[in-house]
Amino acid sequence: MWLFMLPSLAVMTVVLVYPLASAIYYSFLRYYLGGGTPQFIGLANYVELLGDERFWGDLLNTVIIVGASVALQLVMGMALALALYAATRGVRLISLLNFLPNVVTPVVGAIFLKWLFIGRFGLLDSTLISFDIYPPNWLGDPVWAKITLILADTWKFMPFLMLVLYAGLQAFDTQLLEAAQIDGANAWQRLRYVILPMMKPLILFVVAIRAMDAFRFFDLVYVLTNGGPGTATETVTLYTYQIGFRMLEVGKASALGVITLVIVAAMIAGLIFMMSRRGREAF
Amino acid sequence: MNRRASFQIPLLIGLGAFTLINLIPILWGFLISIRQPSDAFAIPPKLIFDPTLIFHYEVWMERGFLTFLFNSLVIAAGTVCISVPIGTLAAYGLARTRARHSRSLLFGLLAVRMFPQILLAIPFFVMARALNLIDSYWMMILAMVAINQPFTVWLMRSFFLDVPVELDEAALIDGCNRWQAFRLIVLPTVRPGLAVTALFSALLAYNEFLFALILTGSRTKTLPVAIAEYGGEDISYWSLSAAGAIGIMLPVVLFTIAVQRNLIRGLTFGAVKG
Amino acid sequence: MPHAIGRRHLFATATMGLAAPAILRRANAADVPVQLISHRYPGLEYYADKLKSALPNVAVDTRLMQAPDAIQLQRLALSSSSNQLDILWANSITLASYAKSGWLEPLDDLWAKHKDEFNLGDYNQGSVAGCSYNGHIYGMPITTNTMLYAYRGDLYDEKGLQPATTWDDYVANAKTLNAPPRRYGVTLALKSDMVNNELQSVMNTVGDGWFDKDWRPVFNDDRGVKAVEIIKHLSQYCVPGFTAVHNDEHSVNMSQDIAAQGQQWATRCATMDNPDKSRVVGKIKWTVMPQGGKQVMISDTYCISRYTAKDKDMLFRLLASALREENQRGAAALATPPRNAVLNDPALQAKYRWYPAVSQCLAVAQPLPALPEFSEASEIFNKRIVQAVVGQMETKAALDAAATEVQAMLKERGYYK
User: Fold this and answer.
1) Residues 225-254 of C with CB under 8 A from B
2) CB-based contact (8 Å) between C256 and chain B?
3) E-assigned strand segments in C92-133
4) CA A234 from chain center: how many Å?
5) Which of A268, C15, C292, C296 lies most in the core, judged by the most C-beta atoms within 10 Å?
6) pTM score, whole prediction
7) What ipTM score was computed for the predicted complex, to two decimals?
């Protein structure tokens, strides 16, 4: 059996082992990219980061934005999946069109969204102004900027959830639903007591994937707000980029990367733990 | 689910409206790409204007985007052709193994994906330079394959888990060896899964920016890198990047349409547990 | 199905076949062209083009991209002593940083050697200073960019306003012309690295500058706090979302009649009068920033990598040839030429409305501190300044925090012995 796994493991080992090991090794160095020899400093980078107020603030921002994003994507994705399931025509076309935001190159998608949200010549602002409505400060207000990022991330990734949840619905055993209908349950009760519980493993599955990815999202924040205003929308990944490529402290950035890895791994492990055994099969 | 005919019309209208709103960023980007900047960013938004294809023309004909499209396609195709087969093999192995640590191995693979990609940039660059492989298709393809493997293996494994072990065993009893059982009996049943995996692998490689920036040069430059070159410094650059951005989507849309038939079925088989 | 796999194998073979030429081509290292990594804007595109035809029989491979990406790639290549980068674009900030790291070839000897041949004495003194570090020349000037006080002449006339000569007047003018939500008094660009550029003028004229001669931060003294407070006050009359506004957005704000005044790069002036890009053609006027200007001046240069495997004399001649006078005339609309003959040409001054103002501004401009670690230091204090301007922190506290962090960083890099 292990022969089957050999090519894949070989490629991954050869290509990824050096970069990963290097990156983790850097985290124990003081490595300034502008020259000078890197020095071994043990856990000093980690200590510095964990004591850094800005890191914890960024972590909080990330959790808020990711949490709200994933929740919103889940609700919208589920609603859309249910709507598609109930529809009898045009399903292919609608699902394809709604999938497009996920297909767009992340950098490009971020620029499109920028042209929507930028004040005052973005589409949203200029439309609101022409109706004499005072537009909110999408990118410059600490609260609105977070909202904008949540909307942006949802726009990009909701299609993925929609698709997976719709597929889940399709594999659904309709007999259960019919039985419930015969028993007198209305649509809402059918949804709440039959469909959702059956979908629970799948829902946890996609939430796990999305949470894992959303934690690392970079392009949107970089293009739209660059962490602004101030540090209101600064995420952990953005801070990592800033430390590594602007402050040229590669060692410290790598340490932050390892910390990110540990946090995300813990989060996923927690989610898996929460799943029923059936759900765990997916992992 | 409620499938009454009278429910369908409002449902479809609702879905249609939602789809339209969902596509606004893309539609707006398209509109920007066919207008001069003074029209594109006017307040209030100008819906009547003189359309111009000059930016699209410039991007594809004068700025060499056709070459970059070719590069992107080569890298995406190369990635899919290598990543999907070896990932599928590994997934089958993982799905059928009785080894106790298979789940830990899988989790370890996923852990790779949890590490911020930007931090891998420097070691990758150093590695590529040492091997003198900067600006070659191979380095980029290998990098994409390696990065893509965890997700591919994970996804295909869940498809294989759906196939009952009895099927394998029946084939083995009939005299096939493991490889034949895999190739002739099990693999055809997960064809939809292959489509899904191929799509996501292709998307990842096609849309990749950071590694493409670092590992490709003028000869192998891909579309995302090319588009990002025109970020600022002159307003017409925005129109150019809009034109490029619209253009870059077309091959992917076509590919998605092509596999769409298999897409839903594929996700049905693989992603649902229960 | 068996032949689904077969098709895949065919595909893979085809791919390898297509990739083979690329691999084979790479084998001929001797014919590798000169490699350039550069920022991209129309002026640089023009010169990159000129580089390709500057010397006969010398092929040049130009890679132009946005500045952050270009700088990232340059650092990657230079820090690993790669010989794959021959010439590079640099600005005053990166030049000092690269020169200190020992990555650039000093050009003094080559400069003296080829001085007459390429009339290198014609270069504007300020521009040459912008390409030097520690007394040595490290690059050849391409263009020097500075910021001008741009304002809507028509709106000023309407309200009977004069271009401000003091900062209080500047803020007052912005307040008078503030008409939200359709039009605002001023537009500020306070995203990432633009903060220090936007603040340079007020920090030098009201404040005491960024650093003292020993490289200790002085921006957090009383006058520095006052300077940041002025910008904070100004931001009330500014187009919202200014922390997400960089040069392009700033340019659109001016050209789409969204803002009545702002500090504008010289390279953006042509856009204002281009009917395809602007709705305020002919309405913008330019002058010097209040209280003596001292606004930012950044030089773009081409440098030679110390690790290049090619003949450095040839590379120097390549650069000098591409940057000769007739080429600079051709680029006059795109980039302010550092050659005096071109800059002071009355015909050009008449043709381009903003040239006289550009000359005036260049005369009073002040480059950013010649600190090699300036980009790292500015990362720190830019963030803090924005936090102060948007009210996330008290101004004094923010600037003090910035000063402490900058000092810590510089100490680690070996300063303050």
Assistant:
1) 246-248, 251-252
2) yes
3) 132-133
4) 15
5) C296
6) 0.87
7) 0.85
